[in-house]
């Protein structure tokens, strides 16, 4: 199946980025930069990335996110808002994580921030979620003979390979794709695969993936906004080894005094997710059929980079007070054939909150957002 024939998907930018669509212009590569690597076409590089497979890896990942989100006054001190403040901290700023993977069912992510640790690990039979700041841990017993893969039971926000593959499975002719050179990432030679939207309606200027020249595993993902010279998102390895980690790397023993909660993961048919994801974890969501919209589930309007997600049943009345209410009070009021509401914008994300309880969000310009709202089913 050709690249342009792959099923199209929409990535919701909850924490980092992700409306991505398209390969059309697969130009030849001019790899005339250090390090010196054999010339490869974008089409061939895409094929290698899609089929890349390693038995294990371990390393340190650094993420830097600046979506230009507006500050919410009083967030840190407001009653009940500490959790929201922590979410904002996770989806903005710099973070470091240690990651490990061993085929077929072992994975570990340990996020280190402000002298605290948040850890997720799975040894194939059980999984642990641990927060040192709260001194709490949850042990999840996985179903017997579970075939769940680590990427379905652990946060993917710190896995450049998972994020890159989500992006690449969503490309179609609305994107120019080319190999723009080579670079060193975590001491390894890599090709730079650059994706550029062919529309001026998106706030995304480009997405560049650094692809390891030996394993074909993505080592770094960089998202540039349409305006400005600083990355909106950069996620990549600062060190990496492709040796298979030992089984003991995935075991966890709670420190003394930590509160432990035991839970059993229900069968796949009974659950939408295996383990709560890291707040702000980018998630791959298939679009619903046109004209359908269930409360809390997104309906996609538009295609490719111009895609906008609509969620019905938002409790906008609950946003009238507190810090979020203060933010919306300062947001511009807008109106159109779709109705009236408030619009919040940043250099990457635009959100429209309508008075009738709908929320529209996308990596698009405010005008594009309102145009999508006008086309949305009531």
From TrEMBL:
Map out region (Disordered) in residue numbers.
262-297
Q: Which UniProt keywords apply?
A: Lipoprotein
Name the CDD domains on file.
LolA
Annotated Basic and acidic residues bias: 262-273
Organism superkingdom:
Bacteria
Would you tell me the protein name for this molecule? Outer membrane lipoprotein-sorting protein
Q: Which organism is it from?
A: Kribbella kalugense
């Amino acid at each position: 199946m050709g690249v342009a024939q792959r099923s199209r998907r929409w990535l919701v930018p909850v924490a980092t980025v992700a409306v991505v669509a398209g390969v059309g212009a697969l130009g030849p590569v001019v790899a005339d930069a250090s390090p010196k690597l054999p010339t490869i076409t974008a089409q061939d590089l895409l094929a290698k990335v899609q089929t890349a497979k390693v038995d294990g890896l371990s390393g340190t990942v650094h993420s830097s996110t600046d979506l230009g989100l507006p500050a919410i006054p009083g967030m840190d001190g407001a009653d009940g808002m500490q959790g929201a403040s922590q979410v904002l901290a996770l989806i903005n700023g710099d973070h470091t994580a240690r990651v490990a993977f061993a085929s077929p069912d072992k994975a570990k992510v340990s996020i280190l921030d402000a002298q605290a640790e948040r850890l997720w690990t799975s040894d194939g039979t059980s999984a642990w979620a641990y927060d040192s700041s709260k001194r709490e841990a949850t042990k999840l017993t996985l179903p017997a003979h579970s075939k769940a893969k680590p990427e379905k039971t652990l946060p993917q926000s710190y896995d450049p390979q998972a994020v890159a593959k989500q992006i690449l499975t969503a490309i179609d002719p609305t994107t120019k794709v080319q190999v723009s050179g080579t670079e060193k990432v975590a001491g390894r030679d890599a090709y730079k695969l650059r994706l550029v939207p062919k529309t001026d309606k998106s706030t995304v200027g480009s997405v560049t993936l650094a692809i390891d020249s030996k394993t074909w595993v993505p080592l770094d993902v960089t998202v540039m906004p349409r305006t400005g010279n600083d990355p909106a998102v950069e996620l990549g390895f600062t060190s990496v080894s492709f040796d298979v980690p030992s089984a003991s790397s995935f075991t966890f023993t709670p420190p003394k005094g930590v509160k432990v909660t035991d839970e059993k993961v229900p069968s796949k048919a009974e659950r939408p997710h295996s383990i709560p994801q890291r707040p702000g974890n980018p998630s791959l969501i298939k679009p619903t059929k046109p004209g359908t919209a269930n409360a809390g589930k997104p309906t996609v309007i538009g295609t490719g980079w111009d895609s906008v997600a609509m969620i019905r049943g938002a409790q906008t009345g609950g946003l009238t007070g507190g810090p979020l209410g203060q933010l919306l009070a300062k947001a511009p009021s807008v109106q159109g054939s779709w109705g009236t509401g408030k619009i919040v914008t940043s250099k990457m994300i635009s959100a429209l909150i309508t008075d009738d309880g709908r929320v529209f969000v996308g990596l698009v310009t405010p005008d594009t957002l309102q145009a999508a709202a006008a086309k949305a089913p009531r």
